[in-house]
Protein 1
Amino acid sequence: MKVTAIPAFRDNYVWALHDDQSAMLVDPGEAAPILAWLDSQHLNPVAILVTHHHDDHVGGIRELAARHELPVYGPAQENIPGRTHPVVGGETVDIRALGLRFQVLATPGHTLGHLCYVGHGALFCGDTLFSCGCGRLFEGTPAQMHTSLALIKALPMDTLVYCAHEYTLENIDFALELEPDNPALLRRLEEVRALSGKPSLPVSLSAELATNPFLRCEEARVIVAAARHFGTPLQPGLEAFAAVRRWRDER
Ligand code: ZN
Ligand code: FE
């Protein structure tokens, strides 16, 4: 399985999984760059997976579906244009043309119906997890997002995380406020800078566990930094997570 990042808008990635004939697309927010890429690679789109209803993730579906007959998997509880296969989490999605199979995970927080797709050592997590960050809580509660991130933390450490946005550098900037001398974080900063604008994704879950403050709300350093910022003691886990999320929002 090959995975290609198709850049869209300013900082979105549409992930394309493909062989030399067929491609599956995750979160096609914009049709034009996808159609151009499919054309240049002589590939036929065979399926679409959608993580949540935001425009920058669904905006290209109608045009792709008008040109190609293909199933569109997406959250049942959200308004997804062109969706043919509503899913809620717990299902298995088979993409026969590519011989791929994904587990659907319910990960509410960024939106209430947000889904992630896991399979073949890859996690397509939309706007739930970013490298060194996590999605804003537009619809869900801190508790929902904390639980969703716990599901992700429990995946195999070598899982490759395919986030929907390139936010890594600004996220590292914030993460360093909490853990200025975390060696893994400093290494990740060097690594991403050296890419000079090329995608910093996918990233391994193990790297995220070592660097992402939203996955590190049990770590004394992170808790102490957030407690100091807000001038109030914080319990490890959910309380620390909620504080770190609020700090990031207010920044
Ligand atoms: Zn979103
Ligand atoms: Fe988004």
Protein 2
Amino acid sequence: MAGTKGEFLRQELHQLVEAMSPGEQIAPERELMVRYDVARETLRRALDELAAEGVIERRAGVGTFVSRPKLTQAVRVRSFTQDMAERHMSSASRIIRHSVAVAGAVLGQALRISPGDRVLSIERLRLADGEPMALESLSIPAALVPDLDIVSLRSRSLYETLASDYGISIEGGTQTIEATVADEEESRLLRVPLLSPALLIERVTWDQNERRIEFVRSRYRGDRYKFQVDLAGAPAAHS
Ligand code: 16G
């Protein structure tokens, strides 16, 4: 029966994937059809299910691969560099663009500065072990970071630079996380197909003196990231 054959095939494919390493490419469909003696349609259906379970991932025009576990990031005031160091991964950045301009109403309000104050904006592509993970656009009141060496941010952490060169320690923040898709530029830089799922994170941070320090808009790859939120117990309701 087709159902039984499909079930058997799924088990075989699960075993195949378990014996492989994360990120490894799976044999082409034609080869799998011969190996398991199944029709293309049966094979595709089984592969579709494995993809839906997140066991394998298809990359258009490239092939099918064993999924890599997503990087779980706890939601806390951490820098990208610290986060990668904890995972024993190297971090680096590509500076995509930077500018100094007046804040305007929206940024001014987010950073609690006047709309006419100047902000330094930097867009960085964040890389982990050389792989693009996120695109981050940050804005910081220019007056807080005179003579900031932007080029050094290719290999240096912003948070470390703020602490060591400006005495600014990021102590708190608030952030939102929502679903989005990668547009043309984002998909090119993040090396994912156009309109791939991504996580849009907006963060405002403050320092030890409760001064607003940065407003950051980040797009994290949806195929490589998940965020963990720890839930504090709610006080029991009194009747
Ligand atoms: C993280 C922060 C970002 C911050 C950056 C500093 C999220 C979503 N974003 O990527 O707001 O600007 O770290 O990183 O966690 P750095 O100190 O490594 O330059």
